[in-house]
Design goal:
- Helices cover 53% and strands 9% of the residues.
- By secondary structure, the protein is mostly helical.
- The protein folds into three domains: 54 residues, no CATH class; 95 residues; 176 residues, hpI Integrase, Chain A, CATH 1.10.443.
- The strands form two sheets. A three-stranded antiparallel β-sheet has the order 1-2-3, covered by helices on one side.
- A hairpin with a 4-residue loop joins strand 4 and strand 5.
Length: 368
Amino acid sequence: MSIHKVSDGAFEIRWREGGRNKSQRVHGSYELARKVERKKMSVRDENRHLDIKREVNFRVSALLDRYWTQYGAKKRSSSREKSIIEGIRASLGRAFVREVDGDAIARWYEDLTAVRGLSAGTAVRHFNVMHHMMEKAATIWSRDTGIDRNPADQVEVRRPDDQRDRYLSEDELRRLKQAIDAKTYCKGTNKINRTFCRLRLIVLIAVTTGMRASEIFGLRWSDVMYGEGLLAVRAKLKGGKMRYVPMTDELAGELRRFPVVIGEDRIFPPRTGASGGRQRVEGSFEDLLERAKIDGFRFHDLRHTFASWYMMNGGDLYELAKILGHSNIKMTERYAKLAREHIARTGSTAREIWKRMETGSAEQANIG
């Protein structure tokens, strides 16, 4: 598209549309010609978009397969990604990609909470997968899918505040430990309660290392580094670097006492008959919380508990980011305020020193 001056106060706009050369003469200033040109370009691009959409019949199911192969299967959270993809397939898989506009995605998103009963945070994670997939469909796969803009951009997403401050207090930590110790043996016997010992160790690892549930279930005996006092986390960081978390002597002792499954390197192999790739602890963990009389808590908050107590005991923010596996320090900065609050609360030491200095100065003045 171009603008050519014909005479004073007259310009000709030339462009190509639908395989043909077109032109229009504009009388007025050059700026007016520029405005007309921009409008023509907009109309041309819109028509091109509509023409593509009319011609291409690419189903969402095929898009999901391609997205899973090239992106979803390679993610650290691939098992969760697979579940989300299958949910999208059940709702929109038979439709053509060109038919999935902003309204269709908005209805799908609303159904996640209204029909399927997902939490707001989980619904957002589902939407993020949809948005990423449709972004690829509208860019690198545009020729195949028939769209050149992401319809998910038209959907307003209610992102909940996930900056939870919930962590276990000193008293709650004590009650939690008492609750898990009380179920070590089967009731009225000296026989080890194997089912509960599994949960016991999972909880102890989570609260003393800050590891995620998926990372704990992925632990292998070969990841336990007794000599260095470390656990190796198999979920690799960007750049291929391995991550390590601290292992106290107490935790090392618990691991040494935990039974090994013959022929299995995983510390927590899936139970017999378990379906799906993800392992969960929600039900049994909720029972544990009830016995410990701890309210408003979830398993992931054990990770917050470790991070919070780490900072309140003088920990370094950048070291904490490495331990937690945060790729961005801003994710870790949420815990910085705990260090500041703890320092403020322990200001009594500084006040006592100041008081003693003033007392000493007063005594010197009296002597003088």
